[in-house]
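User: Sequence recovery, please. Input:
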């Protein structure tokens, strides 16, 4: 058994995620972190269910997860990676400062489990550039280069 997990393959569960991120329902878009190497990479899971509040208005009859929320989910795992990398934020807050090279490959629909991955590409003082990608069943559904700032 990996000593970083709880025996179920979970490195960071929802309780710890809620201690790290200020987001709450319905805007907390990460269910668990399954891999984490501080300073390097992270892998998180988002279980997409028909109960998500955005499905009520986002294409009724053909529900798909809004692309901006996929980017937000990637930003949230990126934020966890950055906050687990930085020893101390000193009362600061992490913000999404930019998104480049964003591509949506296919829709994410109820019943999908999105595997969200991010790696730190560059670090400068309070700025981090993160390469993030999302997969469903090993098929890439979204990718983006994200800029995170600690203010």
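Assistant: Recovered sequence (151 residues):
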């Amino acid at each position: 058994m990996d000593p970083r997990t709880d025996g179920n393959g979970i490195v960071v569960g929802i309780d710890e995620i809620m201690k790290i991120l200020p987001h709450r329902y319905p805007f907390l878009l990460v269910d668990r972190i399954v891999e984490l190497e501080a300073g390097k990479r992270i892998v998180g899971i988002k279980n997409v269910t028909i109960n998500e509040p955005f499905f009520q208005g986002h294409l009724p009859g053909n529900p798909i997860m809004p692309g901006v929320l996929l980017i937000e989910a990637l930003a949230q795992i990126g934020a966890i990676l950055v906050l687990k990398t930085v020893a101390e934020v000193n009362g600061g807050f992490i913000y999404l400062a930019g998104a480049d090279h964003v591509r949506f490959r296919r829709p994410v629909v109820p019943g999908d489990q999105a595997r969200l991955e991010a790696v730190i590409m560059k670090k400068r003082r309070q700025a981090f550039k993160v390469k993030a990608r999302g997969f469903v069943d090993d098929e890439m559904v979204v990718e983006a280069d994200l800029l995170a700032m600690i203010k």
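The domain at 14-150 is CATH 3.10.129.10 (Thiol Ester Dehydrase; Chain A).
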